[in-house]
Amino acid sequence: MELKTLTYIVVFSTFGLYFAIAWWARAASTSDFYVAGGGVGPVANGMAIGADWMSAASFISMAGLIAFLGYGGSVFLMGWTGGYVLLAMLLAPYLRKHGKFTVPEFIGDRYYSKTARVVAVVCLIIASLTYVIGQMKGVGVAFSRFMEVRYDIGLGIGMAVVWVYAVMGGMKGITYTQIAQYCVLIFAYTVPAVFISLQLTGNPIPQIGLGSTMADGSGMYLLDKLDLIVTDLGLQEYTTSKLGNGINMFAYTLSLMIGTAGLPHVIMRFFTVPSVKAARASAGYALVFIALLYTVAPAVGAMARLNLMNTIEPAPGQNLVYDERPQWFKDWEKTGLLQFEDKNGDGKIQYTADDTTNEMVKVDRDIMVLANPAIANLPNWVIALVAAGGLAAALSTAAGLLLAISSSISHDLMKGVFVPNLTEQKELLASRIIMTLSILVAGYLGLNPPGFAAGTVALAFGLAASSIFPALMMGIFSRTVSDKAAIAGMCAGIGVTMLYVFQHKGIMFIPGTSFMGGMEQDWFFGISPNAFGAVGALVNFSVAFLMVKLTGPAPDEIQHLVANLRIPSGAKAAAHEH
Predict the structure, then answer these.
(1) What is the pLDDT of residue 512?
(2) Is residue 479 part of a domain?
């Protein structure tokens, strides 16, 4: 069966599954819509967290970034995984114990201020909308290549799919749909990796294959061969490359970690379980489900890069003739994500580190995972499966982000601030209307991404790191931080981060490209805009604690609330707490 037909069958079969689940799990109350009724089991919630976590950035972009950045791409593995550990250990159990629907609601209660709640909503929307742009791009890229439709049409189909199961089911529908999407995406990610690892190294386990010798009888290790190929072309050695200087690597990793722990669409998942104990258990299960993909990603990235280089340069000093390029090359050229320019007129493809001679003028990092099965000449059903997996990853996270945005507006702004007497049915209707509007806005931004956010979704993590994460950490672990301190900290943190991003938007470092024109020297201690969230978080903490010194601590009743929040469930309140 031809690839296009097979892809349609596989992709639309998964869509049918999502629609059926959404109809079965449709929300009948605000509790169903926001937190799935609070009755999701730990294993199911762990799997849904895994799908929510592993966005298009994880499924499509991360291995592509690792493919071209090498060791420098480890910031994404360490940052995103480390951030999950921070979230599971330091935030999720306490937020679940508080027992409310949303992150801004917790901030409003803890800082006894509607203003703090509104500021948290604004920060949440800025970070979530920036992040959802990357998901929309992932949907458009997958559709435009595999379904052979225009990018905008593919994006529209993706929006319609999300609308059906997110608006109808809310968190309840999204949760059970994400469980199905996790099964699709993890199968789609690991099956090609097993095939390709077996081809290149003779070992079917990709994690082990990455450190194995080549199956061609040369006795050379896979990573050694990749290092040799890229350095011969004048590129950085794969296993030692860095993202800028050491400070930038550290700041980038820290920004991704604390930004990940502050992303509200994942935090909301811990409100869907019935108890604090279940929240801790679901965190453990989620880490296992996430590790199944994250430990495979380095192998996928390295093997994809090796296959790409071997295609363009089949033998040392021998370049591929353009007219003899393989079918996968032609297919991706049609999307505009892969472009060749014959600069010397010899009809051959030169791929070098020198922009004046490099004829592969565009190799979009996002194509690597999706193109990998075709580059390796795997069967069509594997390629179709990868298309379905990429769409599942993008749609699952997009749905979670859009729910976080809509619930913050309907529950935190409308019900919590402006229309406190709103009935449950009217709030549910408002949530669905706002979800619809959010999907339309996300689709528009996917078609017309703003300049400051077009480069990478890493910026969204920086925005969450500089605003939401410090407010949550101080809210849980500091009894003295007051409303004025929290508001000032959030405004200062996200403000300085946005200012830095806009100031450098014309020279933003997009992972996988070179530092343009030596403009790294204009950065604060060499820290790129995408890594500046760590600095913004430091500003947030500093301003908040300074304000406590200037304006005084939180009231006694709030300090008791914080003290009780950290007492394990079932334990007696310590008599000496004050």
Answers:
(1) 38
(2) yes
* CA–CA distance, 61 with 304 (Å, rounded to integer): 12
Nearest-angstrom CA–CA distance, 350 and 340: 9
Pairing, β 338-339 against β 362-363: antiparallel
Is 532 in contact with 255 (CB distance < 8 Å)?
Answer: yes
- The three-point CA angle 323-324-327 to 5° equals 105
Which of 31-45, 151-165, 447-461, 524-538 has the weakest average pLDDT?
447-461
Rounded Cα distance between 252 and 71, Å, is: 14
Burial 513-537 (b: 16+ CB within 10 A, else e): eeeeeeebeebeebbbbbbbbbbbb
d(CA 128, CA 401): 6
Looking at the predicted structure, is the pLDDT value of residue 509 above 60?
A: no
Only one residue has tokens 């901030």, namely 107
Give start and end residues of each alpha helix (H) in 478-532: 483-503
Instruction: Judge contact between 370 and 364, C-beta under 8 A.
Output: no
Residue with tokens 């599942």: 392
Q: Are 236 and 230 in contact (CB under 8 A)?
A: yes
What confidence tens digit (pLDDT) does each residue in 364-374 have?
A: 777 888 888 88
Confidence of residue 574 (pLDDT cuts 50, 70, 90): very low
3-state DSSP call for residue 490? helix
State how far Cα 493 lies from the chain centre.
21
Angle at 81 between CA 79 and CA 83, to 5 degrees: 65
The domain that contains 134 carries what CATH number?
1.20.1730.10
Per the domain annotation, does 339 fall within a domain?
A: no
- DSSP states along 140-185: HHHIIIII---HHHHHHHHHHHHHHHHHHHHHHHHHHHHHHHHHHH
What is the model's pTM?
Answer: 0.81
Instruction: Give the whole-angstrom CA distance, residue 430 versus residue 411.
Output: 9
* Total count of domains within the chain: 1
Q: Is residue 497 part of a domain?
A: yes
What is each CA distance from 95 to 102, 275, 427, 487, in whole angstroms?
A: 9, 11, 23, 19
Whether 577 is in a domain gets the answer: no
Question: Residue type for 512, please?
Answer: G
Query: What are the two backbone dihedrals, phi and then psi, of residue 321, each rounded to the nearest 5 degrees?
Result: -75, 130
Q: Burial letters for 71-81: b for 16+ Cβ neighbours within 10 Å, e otherwise?
A: bbbbbbbbbbb
**The residue type at 415:** K
Are the CB atoms for 174 and 26 separated by under 8 Å?
Answer: no
C-beta separation of 138 from 366 below 8 A: yes
The domain of 535 spans 3-305+378-565
What are the C-alpha distances in Å from 336 to residues 136, 308, 367? 17, 17, 11
State the Cα–Cα distance between residues 370 and 384, nearest whole angstrom.
10
